[in-house]
Amino acid sequence: MLTQQTDFQISKKDRQFVGAHLLVAISALTVGSLYGPLQAFEWSGLDLYGLLEPIGLGDYYKGLTIHGVLNALVWTTFFITGFLTLVMIMGLKRPLRYPKLNRVGFWTMVVGLVMAAIPILAGAASVLYTFYPPLEASWAFYLGLTLVVVGSWIEGFGFYLTMAEWRKDNPDSRSPFIVLAALITMVMWQFATLGIAVEILTMLLPASLGIIDGTDPQLGRTFFWFTGHPLVYFWLLPAYLSWYGMLPKQAGGKLFSDSLARLAFWLFLLLSIPVGFHHQFVDPGIPVGWKYIHSLLTYGVAFPSMLTLFTVVASLEYAARKRGGTGLLGWIRALPWGNPVVSAQLLAGILFMFGGIGGITNASYNVNLVIHNTAWIPGHFHLTVASAVTLSFFGIAYWLIPFVTQKPLWKSKWATIANWTWFVGMLIFSNAMHVLGLLGAPRRTELGKAPYVPEEWSGHLFRMSFGGAILLVGVTLFVLIAARTAFQRQTLGEGESIEFPIAESLRDPQLTPIWLDRFKPWLIGTIVLIVVAYGPQLIEQIGNAAYNAPPFSP
Ligand code: HAS
Ligand code: CU
Known about the structure:
The protein is mainly alpha-helical. The chain has helices at 12-43, 60-92, 99-121, 139-169, 177-192, 194-208, 217-245, 247-250, 258-271, 288-322, 340-363, 365-371, 376-405, 412-439, 458-487, 519-543. Copper (II) ion (CU) binds next to helix 7.
């Protein structure tokens, strides 16, 4: 029985609901991004924090916390939950099963955000986005973050219930790829966040409330990175959803392989979590054998990204050749570069090739010892979360905002310029950061005030802040375009509509093997692998835990 309505129209209320997510996301990006260049300038000796001193926002670490929390956590989480909500509704061609539940989730996230923002702005939570113990923040910061996570879980439950109803009506159909991708992202996220849930509830919150006297930094970091690594795939997978499930259509072609696309997502569910120790290679409390296992598994989790490189580029080549492109690489020119939705994602992918190579470098123990805690790491994550992800989200926003507001994209050419500005700025910025890291420049440090900066660094420091300034121009353009699009008077003309992009697959998805469309085997595998890769160490570390590091409020 097929009850899918083919002429499905999303309701105005649901469009507004998705739009509300984007409003919070882009507002966070706007404020968070202002601090990026400030940090870059400080490093090259131009300290502009004084300008913010009169309003109490001029502190380097407060600024770095605002930058990290708003850009890495808030911009991403709100954008992702909003985007995935739309994907569920449009992918299944039906409204959410329990819209009120999803609204409760969203408002829980908003309350959490406000709760965490107050202590950050007041200087009572300058603990950076990793909030490592024994650094201590106000209890409101931890509780606020918890609520953001809980809210995102609730939205996820709303997705599952919607899917369950669809499955009842369509027992034999393959689920639409984009919907499966959204669900896998959410399931992975729910497993992943168990780590910080335990860290906050058993250690950080009680310590900040004075219920326990201290924390165990080693155990805290282990809990944190249980979540911290898969967090990066929570950011990445929605971009991949778009690269596989939408970009081929936007570029004028089809998805090269529905099966490979699904396989990549399942491998992310399986392998995203049991790799967290690659952030703890220098932590003394973890035996080297476990670091080795997590290192190997990290090479494993790079594999689905290589699959993605292959499948997405094959889809793009198919599109370009259909558009008349020829030659070994000449077809690349035939891609619709003039469409900002497409160019944002292409440029994001190109930057991610470099970011991905850097990631694999990081995962190699001996090289990691050279670059850990240096400027190389922010260089790496600006190519990944701030490029692969953020630039893709720019591209998604260029059709999503028009879709939910029913207003045309404001100045499409400017959007193209914003994309290229971000791309060029990031090439300069991230290259300088990587080089500085190799030269030994530490991360999370006010280098402008450091007495040990050698002359050799100064050219790279300058390049870095020059790149940062270009990035500020890029993000400002993006925010301007987003705001002007959403708040303009002009609406779509009579008969005009924004299409929701779904890429067809070259082969009928119904031919995709059933095991690539069912959760059960993958869920079992995921749980087993987590237990094997983390179980023994968690038992040992919890058994030896000593909550005796006195809290330190920066
Ligand atoms: Fe990472 C540290 C290893 C990917 C984010 N990473 C970080 C931190 C962040 C971060 C935020 O092993 C710092 C955390 C902190 O504050 O301390 N990372 C990896 C590996 C990968 C990887 C192996 N990272 C990411 C992604 C992130 C991210 C994705 C965010 C979204 N990372 C590490 C390690 C550390 C680390 C260590 C700890 C370092 C330390 O010592 O602190 C892999 O997943 C990468 C695989 C990727 C590829 C690239 C495939 C290329 C594709 C492009 C397709 C192209 C297209 C365009 C579509 C193999 C898919 C075509 C265009 C045309 C024109 C045709
Ligand atoms: Cu990682």
